[in-house]
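Lab notebook, page 48
Experiment: co-folding of the full assembly
Goal: obtain a model of how the components sit together before planning crosslinking
Operator: M.T.
Materials (sequences as entered):
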Amino acid sequence: MNTGQHVTEALAAYAADALDQAESDQIRAHLAGCPACQAELTSLRVVTDRLANLAPRRQPQPRLRQRVLAVVERAAQPPRGAPRLAFVRWAWAGLTAVLLVGQVWLAASLLSLRAQLNLAWQVQTILLSSDAAPVKLQPPGPGSAARGVYRFESELRRGVLSYYHLPTPGASQTYRCWFDLPNGTETACGELAIGPEGSGLLLLTLPETAPARLRVTLEAARTASPAGPTILTAALSPDSQ
Amino acid sequence: MHIAQTLRADTSARDEHILKCLAEGETAAVAELYDCYGRLVFSLIIRMVGDAAIAEELVQDVFVSVWHAAASYRPALGSVRTWLLAIAHHRAVDELRRRRKEKSWVSLDDVEHEWSLSAEDQLADPLVFRSLETLPPEQRLVVQLAYFDGLTILDIALQLDLAPGTVKSRLRLAMGKLRAMLGAESGCIP
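Observation: model returned without errors.
Model output:
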């Protein structure tokens, strides 16, 4: 059927619902853009309206009215899918947030792992490359169980201090490491992280001038020179550079 | 203005107001529409499908459809009553065709081959009944098979052993005559 041509021949059948689905769809499509055929259909609908009058009047059961009103009330309610959809949206938002936090945590973990692997790699390099004897660090006086061992590799200008049994520092205190230089000055060489049983590892970069002593002090603040008590100390030989 | 025209204008204004309320989401307006046309819709449907329980289901469907489609109603294309009856008729035809589809064929026992409107039908709208009686029997039969029995043009052609074009032509002629007799074109419906 050409939707550009009038469909007058079929309109009576359309008005009487006597066309099959396909032909009805074609007529409907034509009517949407043809005021003349719409007007023709409107006049035919009046006939079908009057034909309906031939149906003998039957009084429906009173309950039908209540059923109709109830079913329309239900139809007027927001579809149950709406709150469910909102829940799904919130769930997706929550899941996305969790995934995002998870990704951040994973990235941070990977960075930390990478730093630890880097530390382990450097420690391994120093230990395998050094042929110098390890230097033991002792507390300056009796009564402390803190201990440390210093190993270094002169050519790499890198050293590693391992320590254990360091007492847990106070809330605002930190253990700091120092090289005492022959000219009476000190140079900071790092802050000690305290692990289980007061243990840990600290990578050191050797100063240009051969240091005379290695010290660990307990500091209350980040200072340019040691001000707190010495916890571990060891004299270094001239080879320790 | 003629009294009938005045009444029709009042009815149209009332019905269009109900449809406007429905379109704005007022479910209470359904009760008003049902009180006006529920009996007519039920009567048409049960006349076509013959089963009260099924007719009640279809009436519910009709009013839910009206609720959903109220915003699309256009007064220029016909009155609310005409629009409502078209929806009701369409639902009843769907039901009749569904039943026939289940049987896979159109049984000769299911449809009348003779004009079969009863005296009870005659009482419902004597003017329409008389108008139908003036039609040639073959045109009257096609109107009945199409409108009241819900047969398609093709079904009727098979039943009456006619070409589909002939059936379509008879229906068109019959509807045209009825329109002229009922004064639909002039808008002078009593």
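Interpretation: Chain A has three domains: 1-55, 84-128, 135-235.
Next step: discuss with group before ordering constructs.
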